[in-house]
Design brief:
CATH superfamily: NAD(P)-binding Rossmann-like Domain
Bound molecules: NADP nicotinamide-adenine-dinucleotide phosphate
Distance between the termini: 16 Å
Helix content: 25-40%
Number of strands: 9
Structural class: alpha/beta
Shape: globular
Number of domains: 1
Length: 220
């Protein structure tokens, strides 16, 4: 199957791209972002559209897609509500609309976050909540991932400087965290495996928390 990965340069996206390249069920991977990962692989093609909010110029490359793994996103820290909404909501919805029009019913997995709530108190949780609900209303087989702590399985690095630093500190604590709170943690590898499994066989649950993501990652 052909899959599209948004945000493949990010921590989660790096893990998702890696798994897509090693999993034989994925035959073609197309990355879309504001820059390419620069990796070379027979299954991989990368596009850097002039305007990520308007994918009409690259539509011919977005057909025949079975699934989109949407890992593009930002931390709201230090951002205005309008700027955060533009990247989190507008970019995601614009991409999803184009993909749904070209590939009705395709799988669309969106990486949201723990605490997402359209009626929540914080700006970011409202924006992510609205993004989730609009995605779930589209002609897509949508799944919303709400991971908590994510362990980078293969040295994936966050593009967000603060998080990259925090991960250096948190990494040695992961085995303990996993033992104490197994249902609150997941890994980049399990996120990626869950995404691919959902593209292959789907599941009834549309909003997946760490425990659900880890279950969905198990071999089919
Ligand atoms: N990491 C976690 O622990 C965690 C937990 C829960 C939820 N999440 C969510 O998962 C998503 C991805 O997280 P991550 O940790 O992989 O983030 P990351 O390492 O900071 O990567 C972010 C990705 O989004 C892209 N991006 C950011 N702003 C963009 C913009 N304005 N235009 C185009 N592309 C943009 C980046 O591209 P460039 O390389 O071009 O910058 C990169 O590919 C985010 O929505 C985050 O909130 C993360």
């Amino acid at each position: 199957m052909k899959v599209v990965v948004f945000g493949a340069t990010g921590m989660i996206g790096q893990g998702v791209l890696r798994e897509c390249l090693v999993d034989p069920r994925v035959t073609e991977v197309l990355t879309v972002g504001r820059k390419a990962t620069g990796q070379g692989h027979a299954k991989l093609r990368e596009i850097v559209p002039a305007d990520l909010y308007d994918l009409s110029t690259v539509e011919d490359q977005l057909t025949g897609v079975k699934a989109c793994f949407f890992c593009l996103g930002v931390s709201s820290a230090g951002m205005s509500g309008a700027d955060y909404r533009r990247v989190t909501y507008e970019l995601t919805i614009a991409a999803a609309k184009t993909l749904a029009r070209l590939n009705a019913g395709m799988t669309f997995v969106y990486v949201s976050g723990a605490g997402t709530d359209a009626n929540g108190r914080s700006m970011w949780s409202q924006v992510k909540g609205k993004t989730e609900s609009d995605l779930l209303a589209m002609d897509l087989d949508g799944y919303m991932f709400r991971p908590g702590y994510i362990h980078p399985s293969h040295g994936e690095k966050s593009r967000t400087r603060l998080y990259a630093a925090l991960y250096v500190v948190a990494k040695p604590l992961y085995p303990l965290l996993k033992r104490l709170a197994p249902n609150a943690v997941t890994t980049t590898e399990d996120i990626a495996r869950a995404m691919i499994n959902l593209a292959v066989s789907g599941t009834e649950k549309k909003i997946l928390h760490p425990k659900d993501i880890n279950s969905a990652a198990l071999p089919l």
